[in-house]
Amino acid sequence: MMTPTYYRPPAISINTTHKAPQAEFSAGKASSYLDLNFALISLKMSVSDRIGAPESHPRFHGVLAELTHLILRRCFNSVEQTALSVVTLWLLTYVLTTVYTRCTRISGVPGPFWAAYSRFWLLRAYASGCLWQIYHNTSLTYGPLTRIGPNQVLLSDPEESMRILAPRSKYERGPWYDAFRIEPNRPNIISQRHRSTHLRMRYQMAPGVHTLWFICHPLTNVTQYSGKDIANFENIMNVRVLDLTDHITADWTSTADSTVVFDLGRWIRHLTMDTITHISFGKPLGYVENGQDVMNFTGVVEQLLPVVLRFSLFTELKYVLQVLARIPCFRRKLFPHSTHSTGLGGIKITKDIINSRPPPEPRTKSDMLNSFLCHGISPTEVESEMVIALVAGSDTTSTGLRATILNIISNPPVYRKLQQEIDEAITRGLISSPIQDTEARRLPYLQACIYEGLRCHPPLVMPRERIAPPEGDTVCGYHLPGGTIVGLNVWTSQRTKVYGTDPEVFRPERWIEASDEQRRAMRKVWDLVFGYGTTKCLGENVALMTMNKVLPELFRRFDICTIDPQRPWHSECYGIFFQKGFNVRVSKREAFS
Ligand code: HEM
C-alpha cells in the first residue's frame, strides 16, 4: 500500500543522479559544488516529503535509509570530503556542547566572558608567562570563585580550598595531572588520580623520601614527616650548603673596586639539584662543583614545562600519546627513556645505580632510591618516581629561596634586622657553622622571613585542579554540578584578610606582632603553600630545612645586592619555574665569614 508514495520520482532521482555524475564529482571542484547543491535540494525534498506524508513505519525507515545513504555518499566519497565532513561535524559538536555547557553548567559563576566558551582563555593565560598574575587579577575582579573555562572554575577562598583538599573530601585530582606523567601509561605519585592507589603510593614512598621517619596524624590519618630522623640528611645538607658558600667565596665575590656579576638564581638551582640527588642516590651529581647543568636536566625541564602545561589544558591528547607510547620508535623520541644520557634521561642514572647495587635489604636505610625499592616499589616505577622527586624537590625549593632572598635584599629594614639577628646569635654562641636546623628554627625573625617569603611568593602556583564529586557541591555559595573542575588559586589565597590589611606587602613583622590566635589562623592558611590533606607535599620539611640553612649561611658571610633594581630577575613563571637569572653582587663580610 505504501510502495507508491515511497518510490516516487524525487526520491529515486537522488539515487540515480548519484551514480551518473560520479566521475565528474570527484574530477573537479565546480562539479563537486553543483553535486553538493543538488544533494541538498534532494535532501530537502526528501525531508519535506517525509514531513508532509502520513507517518508509517516502513516509510520512516525508508527516509532514514535514504538519508544515511545520501550522507555517506555525499560526505565521505573522497578523502577531502571526508576530512571536511569530520571537521565540520567536530566544529558543530564543539559549538553546540560549548553553548549547552555555557548555558546549563556553572552559568551563575562570574568570570571573563570568553573564558566560558573555550579553553583558549586559559591557554593564553598559561602562555603569557605570568599565570599567577592573571589568576590573581581575575580573582580580584570576579570574586573568590571565578569561571575560567567552559567547565573550569578558579577558587581563591582558603577555607573552601582546605575543605576540597581535606582527607575525607570527595573531590579527586582532575585530568590536568595526567600531563605530569613521566611514563604515559603509568601514573606516578603526582599524576596518580585514583585516591586509594595514590594513598598506597604515598605510604610506600613516605618513609623513603629524604630518609625521614613519618607519623600518621591522629586526626587526618595523613602521612606526615616529623623531621627527627635526620642525622644523615642534615649532614648531607651541611656539606651541600658549605659547597655552595665555598664556591661563592672563591669565585664570585666582588671587592671594593671591582664587581663580579653572579647569577645567584642559577647557583641556588645547582645547590637544590645537588641536595636532592645526594639524598636520592647517595651522591650529588656535581652541579655546584662543575658550575653547570649536569646532564642538561634543568635545561630540558625548563624547555618542557611550558609545553607540558599547555598540554595539560587539552588532556584529550593524552590518548594519542598513550597510543604513540606503545610504538617503540615514537616512545624513544617523545618520552624520557633510560637510553637517554641527558635531560629527563636522568632516568638513566637511576637505572645504572639500581643495576650497580646489590638488591637492598628490607632494613637498609641509606638513600631514597634504596628506600623506595625496600618498600616494594618496582625498579621500573622507581625510575619515574626519582625523576618526579628531582623535579618536585629542586625547582620549588630554589624558587622559594630566590623569592625570599630577593624580598629580603630589596627591603633594607628587613635585611638589617635579619643580619642583626644572625650576627647576635653568632656572638652569643647560639648558632654553629653551618647552622643546625633546630638552631635556625629558634631565630624568630629568620622564621618570619621564610614564612613571609613563601607566602608572598608561593613557588607552586599551578591550579592543581580537582573534580567535583558526581552529586555536585556548593562552593562559595554557587552550586557546582558533578564533574566541574575546580582550580586552586594559591597566590590569591595567600593575600587574604587573615594576614591583615597589607597582605600584598612583604612584611615579616606580621608573624611576630600577631597574637597567638591570629598566628594560628595565618599558619593554617599558609599551609596551603605546601598543599593540604592526602596530597600535601611530601618534602615540606626538606624544603624548610634547606631554607633554614641557606639563608643564614649566605647572610652571615656575604652582603648581597641586586645588579639591576628595575628588573632584578626575569621572571617567566609557568607555574613552578622562574626560569631566568637573578644577577647579584656579592661581597664578603669579614667579621662573620
Ligand atoms: C618550597 C618548596 C616546595 C613547595 C612550595 C611544594 C609544594 C607542593 C604542593 C603544593 C604539593 C601538592 C600538590 C597537589 O596538590 O597535588 C606538593 C606535592 C609534592 N611535593 Fe612538594 N613542594 C616543595 C618542595 C618539595 C620537595 C623538596 C620535595 C621532595 C624532595 C617535594 C616532593 C613532593 C611530592 C613527592 C609531592 C606529591 C605528594 C602527593 O601527591 O602525595 N616537594 N608539593
Automatic annotation (TrEMBL):
Belongs to the cytochrome P450 family. Heme binds at residue 537. Gene3D superfamilies: Cytochrome P450. One of its GO terms (molecular function) is oxidoreductase activity, acting on paired donors, with incorporation or reduction of molecular oxygen. This is Cytochrome P450 oxidoreductase. Keywords: Heme, Iron, Metal-binding, Monooxygenase, Oxidoreductase. Transmembrane segments: none annotated. Pfam families: p450. InterPro entries: Cyt_P450 (IPR001128), Cyt_P450_CS (IPR017972), Cyt_P450_E_grp-I (IPR002401), Cyt_P450_sf (IPR036396), Cytochrome_P450_monoxygenase (IPR050121). SUPFAM superfamilies: Cytochrome P450. Its cofactor is heme. It comes from Lentithecium fluviatile CBS 122367.
